Amino acid sequence: MPTILVTGANGLLATHIIIELLENGYHVKGLLRDRRKFQYPAHPNLELIENDITDFSSVKNALAGCESVIHVAALTAQNFLRYDAYEKVNVQASEELVKLAIDAKIKRFVYVSSANAFGYGSKENPGNETTPMKAPFTSSFYARSKQQAQMRVLAYREQMEVVVVNPTFMLGAYDGKPSSGQIIFMGYNKPVIFYPPGGKNFVHVADVAKGTVLALENGIAGEAYLMANENLSYREFFRQLAEVTGRNPLLIPIPKFILIAAGYMGDLLRFVNYPVSFSSVNMRSLCVHNYYSNEKASKQLGMTFRPVKQAIEEAVQWFRSKDMLS
User: Fold this and answer.
1) Where are the membrane-spanning stretches (predicted)?
2) Closest residue by Cα to residue 96 from 78, 111, 76, 77
3) 162 Cβ partners below 8 Å, 6+ apart?
């Protein structure tokens, strides 16, 4: 089987992509900054390479012998005060990786973008791959950088086969930070849960990994595929979490005006160069119904999706096994 380079190898999604590739017989090179943070056991068909995605000479060496690339590495933290940081890692490094891949005669390049590179919709009319990006994500440094990188990468589709996947909010095992699994900590075993007024699309991370490999194998070059599953309000999500954990918490909505006020306080702190993770942009994002459709991925890639409740269960089991939940 061919060798695939996977960047950002110790992240939640990349770990599951590596597992999916190994289980399908591929050889994998995993590029990551710290191999000690890699959560999956050693495997004879897996080579871990310690390097930063912005160290282009090392990345060039890592590409040797690879047939394809799955580019997952990205700057996702919300506390950087300037767009420059996101542009350097998410946009410029992604474009440079594409150029290096073309020089290395790489066959196919799969770029992992974000669902918020497209516009969201309602439960009745969810966003899809043709929906233009919407506020408040048009003001999000992270979302803007992912959309820009997606456009830059697709600009090279005449020189190399390029496919994009756009995951929504992923949950599952091997969340070492935790990253998106932090939402579980917000409600786990709490007698009272305060929840925002909006909602989002949730998906099992293993399904996104499977969809990414299907995009590698069968995706149409030049196309993007939303990896989405269940559109849930935050109340519905925390109710599912409560069912998984056998609790019956009191669920209390947070008024929108409180979240917006907190966001502006975050903006003020950022203005004086205090790096907080909350801002008016991400507080407004908690107030919208950030819903998407998986119709294209289901039809063109043959994707099927397991219940989000299963993703919650597996995430909870993982955190418990690592003594991260009490």
Assistant:
1) none
2) 111
3) 98, 108, 109, 110, 111, 153, 154, 156, 221, 222
Q: How many residues does the chain have?
A: 326
Q: What pLDDT does 40 receive?
A: 87
- Tell me the whole-structure pTM to 2 decimals: 0.96
- Count H helices, E strands: the chain? 12, 13
Structure confidence by residue, pLDDT tens digits, 126-135: 999 999 999 9
Query: Domain spans of the chain?
Result: 3-172+201-230+290-306
- pLDDT computed for residue 230 by the predictor: 98
C-alpha 221 chain-centroid distance: 21
Q: How far apart are CA 254 and CA 287, in angstroms?
A: 10
pLDDT single digits (tens) 21-69 = 999 999 999 999 988 888 888 899 999 999 999 999 989 999 999 999 9
Run of H or E residues at 231: strand 230-233
Superfamily of domain 3-172+201-230+290-306: NAD(P)-binding Rossmann-like Domain (3.40.50.720)
Closest-CA residue to 51 (of 36, 34, 71)? 34
